[in-house]
Amino acid sequence: MNNIVVSKHPLVQQKISALRQASNTSQAFRELSDGIGRLLMYEATLDLKLIVDNNIQVQSPISAYHPVSIATQHALVPILRSGLGLLNAASDFLPHAQIHHLGLFREESTLLPVEYYNKLPQKCTVDECIVLDPMIATGGTADAAIKILKTWGVPRIKFVAICVSRQGIERLAKEHPDVQFFVAVIDNELDEQGFVVPGIGDCGDRLNNTGSSKN
């Protein structure tokens, strides 16, 4: 599917292999997630629009030049709580972006998404939202987040995730052909409880040192 970009960078693959290890400390998991996030953000920002200000001249050590800036207005949208693990990387790439948080979780018995936090402004004033969530399993939470943002009125959505299931990402790409998905790895299996196999575990717990090892 044309709207799924899987990173082919060797460093991403090496970091994914390290990230999977159950023996990682929370610090190691955070550092690896951040490193992968930066490489994915490079991919996600390759098509940003530039504007040259021909009315201003800035002096370099050699001569004057016209400054260049990013024309696209962004919002970064981490899905609580694990999406916060990608926020530092994303905000370093786009330091002037708005940051809006969405609180969504997957109810364990039904596997359906539950929204518990949404403080989006009444009016959308950005050109593009980049959703941040390390894991896509069934795709239900990601689908809910995308629908919330579409209802809000954002013209363009990108989604950055580290580890996704083939079932989940293909579902999302089909249901939202106008959304671009930037991912580090696609795992082929979901178990009977809806966990990605081999996966990277429960990102919220692993980032925050709060227990469970599942995703």
TrEMBL record:
EC top class named in words: transferase
Gene Ontology cellular component annotations, sorted alphabetically: cytoplasm
Annotated family: Belongs to the UPRTase family.
UniProt pathway annotation: Pyrimidine metabolism; UMP biosynthesis via salvage pathway; UMP from uracil: step 1/1
Domain annotation Phosphoribosyltransferase: ranges: 6-210
The EC number(s) this enzyme carries: 2.4.2.9
Name of this chain's protein: uracil phosphoribosyltransferase
Cofactor names: Mg(2+)
GO MF, one example: GTP binding
UniProtKB keywords: Allosteric enzyme, Glycosyltransferase, GTP-binding, Nucleotide-binding, Transferase
Residues annotated as signal peptide: none
PANTHER family, per the entry: ADENINE PHOSPHORIBOSYLTRANSFERASE (PTHR32315), URACIL PHOSPHORIBOSYLTRANSFERASE, CHLOROPLASTIC (PTHR32315:SF4)
Domain of life: Eukaryota
